TrEMBL record:
Keyword Glycoprotein appears in the UniProt entry: no
Native organism: Rotaria sordida
Gene Ontology molecular function terms on file: ATP binding; glutathione binding; glutathione synthase activity; magnesium ion binding
Protein name (record): Glutathione synthetase
Residues annotated as binding substrate: 228, 464
Catalytic reactions of this protein: gamma-L-glutamyl-L-cysteine + glycine + ATP = glutathione + ADP + phosphate + H(+)
A GO-annotated cellular component: cytosol
Residues annotated as domain Glutathione synthase substrate-binding: 212-316
Record-linked Gene3D superfamilies: 3.30.1490.50, 3.30.1490.80, ATP-grasp fold, B domain, Glutathione synthase, substrate-binding domain superfamily, eukaryotic, Glutathione Synthetase, Chain A, domain 3
Residues bound to Mg(2+): 381
TM ranges: none
Amino acid sequence: MSIKKEENGSMRLRWPIEDIVAFAKRYAITHGLLCLIPDNLDQATIVPFSLYPSPYSYSHFKFIWSIQTAYNRLYNRISLDDEILEKALSPVIPLDDFVERLWKLHRNCKRRQPIQLDIYRNDYMLDTKVDKMRQIEFNTISSAFAGLTGIVADLHKAILHYGIENCHVRELKLDEKYEKSSTIDLILPNEPLKKSAEAMIKAFELYNNENACILFVIVPNERNVCDQNALIDEIQKLKPNIHFHLKTFEQLTNELLYDEKTFNIYLKSSYDEIAIVYYRAGYIPDHYINEKCWLIREYIEQSRAIKCPTIRSQLAGCKIVQAYLTNENIIEKYINNENLSKNIRSTFASMFAFDNNQTREKYINLLRQNPNDYVLKPNREGGGNNKYDDEILKLIENKENHLNSYIAMEKILPPKCTTCLIKPNGKHLLHVECINEIGIYGTMVTNVDTNEEYINDVIGYLVRTKTTDTNEGGVATGYSVLDCLDVSQNNNELSKIFSQEL
Ligand code: ADP
Ligand code: MG
């Protein structure tokens, strides 16, 4: 961050840091950077956030931004190719009931809706070992925080204006040519919400029944309500007449009507026809508490409603598929531009599975000798599942046969920055060493029968920042905080200012 200095003045905080933290919390509360408290769903608290943006390389950011539409198309095509899905998933289907169940559902459900709507989030870290952006995972279901991440960019602008003398914050438009400036601050704008809403509206229009509604499938006791409602509000700003319903799978077991003649689905209470089913649940087995919940998923999948995502698209986001795509000449089949496939390939970290008897022993030895260089990941979403360091050794020693449910991924070593993490109940961590994970949101609306692409867009970003001693990610799980980027390439200038004693 570069701050315009007074000729004779030094850059400094205008107020004590406690004052700035108080300002930040008030801003967060006023602007809906909130989630509900786990044991009291009538009360909200702040979603953890950083006090100021993290320094980040603009060229690396720009790079992952520039390849997102190609990534969107790649995953869209993978999701439509049963052969590659089956090949990629086959090692885990016999081992993982959840993946097996999704796969069988996908195979048994007839497709009755050619329109596919996807809201993706492609997560990366910058790997200092090679100075390249490396993909952590590609999320195809329930890509959260598009409703909140824009608030953080605005919050940071407000904090800098409030807290630092002579601070002129400028937004850098992404299509602007970036020239290093020594006098102006640069923060990236971030508006994934508006474009997510536009994609949903486009899909809604293609469904072609303006009296139909949009259904959000949510988890019981959902806490991330501001994020979800922000999307509803944004859609209603543009299309005030669209109705919304938010239901859990269990509620739907009583309330969903599936018409076997027309393949339409309705909600019993209102008899609203459902145009779009948007899943903010359904990505882990616990979300299906009984067989009836699975039946609901089946009805929806074979209905005429547009699903975000379809089961095939959800399956394309499995980590075993991500690992499979790193094999030679796979992505090249789907991307006919050599440069683009090279760029996408450059984001792949080394990944391997343990299903091949010829390589299994070699890979186990590799892990034994270098457990700190790898992460073991099961095919699960939602955080808290990965194994690191000694846990990897323990798994090899005690439960070697469980290895088949995991894929190994080279550990990424992101650059460190110092920042202040603001958490609920005053549990702030001031001036701590952190790392960043960047997610790029993409939207697609396609007709999979005609290959028409109505929308293929890169729409915004998410920054999650966590202390260097935390392995897992996840804001909802309490590991990370929401953040935003300062691309002026004046490394850690802001952290120096925020750590100044007054
Ligand atoms: P999920 O979010 O589905 O649980 P992820 O693949 O995103 O699974 O892993 C969870 C977290 O673990 C990430 O947010 C990241 O912080 C960390 N992580 C995952 N893969 C790596 C890796 N290869 N190197 C370093 N950290 C990783
Ligand atoms: Mg993740």
